[in-house]
Design goal:
By secondary structure, this protein is an alpha/beta fold.
C-alpha cells in the first residue's frame, strides 16, 4: 500500500495531464508491447499444446484460475510493471540534465505550463524590473523586458563614455533575473570588482556584455548571445539603440519665486534632489528598437514598473514609437507602484502622485489599473530617507486599484517577486476575456 501511495502521488499523476506530449508515446508503447505480447503468446500456446510439459507448469501458468480472471490479473500486473519501468527509466535518463533535488515530472509539467503562459511585456529598469521578472519567469516563457538605455552613472556610465556602448547595467540585471542557469553562474554575472583592482567597481556582467558587443559587432547581438549563454527565459530588448540623455526640469524654490532648472543626465537628476516638473529625452525624437514595437502589439499583458519612476520607468515611455504602440495595443495594461518613495525623486509621493506623473508624460487612458502595496507596517531607518507609499486620503482616482501585501520581508522597501507575480497573474486571469473582447473585428 505504501508503494502504491507513493507511485500514484500528485507528481506521478501529472504524467497523464494534457499537453505534456507524453501520453501519445505511452499509447504507442502500449500498442507495441501488446502486439509483441500477442506474438509471444502465440508461440507459447503452440509450445504448450504441441510439447509435453512438467506438471509444475500447471501452477506457473495459473491454470487453476478461470481464463478470464487470469487474463485480467496478468494484464494488470503487466501494465503496472511497464509503468514503473517507464518512470524509473525516464528518471535515470533525465537525471543527467536535471538537478538531483528537482522532481523530473514536476519540472516537465512546469515547463509545459510556462509555454502556455501569457505574452507579457514589462517596461522599466534597475532593481524593480529585475524583481518583477524574477517572479513572472516561473509562470510564462513569453516574457519581453524593455529596458531603458539612459543610465549614465556607475559602471554603466563609464563603459558608455569610454567604449561608446549602450549602458549595460539594467540589461545585466534583467539577464541575471531571467537566467535559468546555475546560481553560481548568475552570481558571477552580478559580481562587482572591488576598488583598487584597476576595474573601479565594474561588474563582471557589464564587462561581459561590453566585450560581447565588441566580438559580435553590435549591442543587440551582444544581448542575444549573453542571454543564450545564461539560458534566459524570454527576451530582453533596449527601448532604443540611439544614444540618448535623460533630462529633467526641476523646481528650485527661492524666496521670491520658483525657478525651473534643467538637469541633464539620469544620475544628476536624482543627485540634485529637487522636485521634478517633467523628464524628457535628448534628442526627443528617437526610433524605438523594432522588436519592442512588435512585442507590445503582440502582448496579452503590459506592465510598467516597479522601479524609479522618473529615471527607470518613464525613459522607456518617452520614446514616441513606444507610446503609439501602447495606445494601439489591446493588451491589458497595469502600472506597478513602488513600495517606498525614492529620495531625490519621489519624496512624499502617494500612489496617486505616481499615477499622475505617469499620465502627465504618456497621456491618460493607457494604463487603467494600478498595483499598489497595502502593507504599511514598516518603518525605514532615517538614513534611507524613504517612506512607505500610501494612498491619498479621500482622493479621487482615475484608475482601478489592485491592493495587496507586496512587501519583501527581508527588504521591506522592495517588492516580493512571488507575491507580485501572483497578484498580477490573478488580475490577468480575471480580465483577459474582457481584453480579448475589445479586439477589432474585420
Amino acid at each position: 500500500m505504501n508503494f502504491l501511495a507513493r507511485f500514484f502521488n500528485r507528481s506521478t499523476v501529472k504524467w497523464l495531464y494534457f499537453g505534456l506530449g507524453v501520453k501519445r508515446w505511452l499509447v504507442l508503447l502500449f500498442l507495441g508491447v501488446t502486439i509483441l505480447s500477442v506474438g509471444f503468446a502465440l508461440v507459447l500456446v503452440n509450445i504448450y499444446r504441441e510439447s509435453p510439459l512438467p506438471d509444475v507448469f500447471y501452477y506457473l501458468t495459473l491454470q487453476f484460475i478461470p481464463r478470464l480472471e487470469r487474463g485480467v490479473l496478468l494484464g494488470a500486473l503487466g501494465v503496472a510493471l511497464i509503468a514503473v519501468a517507464i518512470v524509473k527509466l525516464s528518471e535515470s535518463l533525465l537525471s543527467a540534465f536535471v538537478a538531483d533535488d528537482i522532481n523530473i515530472v514536476e519540472a516537465l509539467y512546469r515547463k509545459r505550463a510556462r509555454r502556455r503562459g501569457p505574452k507579457i511585456v514589462a517596461l522599466g529598469g534597475g532593481t524593480g524590473l529585475s524583481t518583477l521578472l524574477r517572479g513572472l519567469k516561473e509562470h510564462t516563457d513569453h516574457l519581453t523586458a524593455i529596458v531603458t538605455v539612459a543610465d549614465d552613472g556607475g559602471s554603466s556610465g563609464t563603459l558608455r563614455r569610454t567604449l561608446g556602448v549602450l549602458p549595460p547595467g539594467d540589461i545585466r540585471q534583467c539577464i541575471a533575473a531571467l537566467a535559468d542557469s546555475e546560481p553560481l553562474v548568475t552570481q558571477l554575472f552580478q559580481y562587482r570588482f572591488g576598488e583598487g583592482t584597476g576595474l573601479d567597481g565594474h561588474s563582471f556582467g557589464n564587462l561581459f556584455i561590453a566585450a560581447m558587443a565588441g566580438v559580435t559587432g553590435n549591442f543587440e547581438r551582444a544581448i542575444l548571445e549573453s542571454s543564450r549563454v545564461l539560458a534566459v527565459r524570454g527576451q530582453i530588448l533596449p527601448s532604443t539603440l540611439q544614444n540618448v540623455t535623460l533630462c529633467a526640469d526641476t523646481r528650485d524654490p527661492e524666496p521670491a519665486e520658483t525657478r525651473v532648472a534643467r538637469v541633464a543626465g539620469e544620475s544628476a537628476i536624482t543627485h540634485r534632489g529637487r522636485p521634478i516638473e517633467r523628464v524628457y529625452l535628448e534628442p526627443e525624437h528617437v526610433p524605438a528598437y523594432p522588436g519592442v514595437v512588435r512585442a507590445i502589439l503582440d502582448a496579452d499583458l503590459i506592465i510598467a514598473g516597479p522601479g524609479s519612476l522618473y529615471t527607470s520607468v518613464l525613459p522607456n515611455l518617452l520614446v514616441e514609437d513606444i507610446q503609439r504602440a501602447l495606445q494601439t495595443s489591446n493588451a491589458l495594461k497595469v502600472y506597478v507602484c513602488n513600495v517606498a518613495t525614492q529620495p531625490g525623486e519621489t519624496d512624499h509621493f502617494t500612489v496617486e502622485d505616481h499615477f499622475d506623473a505617469l499620465t502627465q508624460h504618456v497621456g491618460a487612458g493607457i494604463f487603467t489599473h494600478v498595483v499598489a502595496n497595502n502593507n504599511w507596517n514598516f518603518q525605514y531607518p532615517e538614513h534611507t530617507r524613504s517612506e512607505t507609499v500610501r494612498l491619498r486620503e479621500n482622493g479621487a482616482r482615475g484608475f482601478e486599484l489592485i491592493l495587496a501585501d507586496f512587501v519583501d520581508e527581508a527588504q521591506p522597501w522592495r517588492h516580493d517577486p512571488v507575491k507580485l507575480a501572483k497578484e498580477i497573474l490573478k488580475y490577468y486571469e480575471a480580465n483577459k476575456n474582457v481584453a480579448h473582447s475589445t479586439l477589432p473585428t474585420d
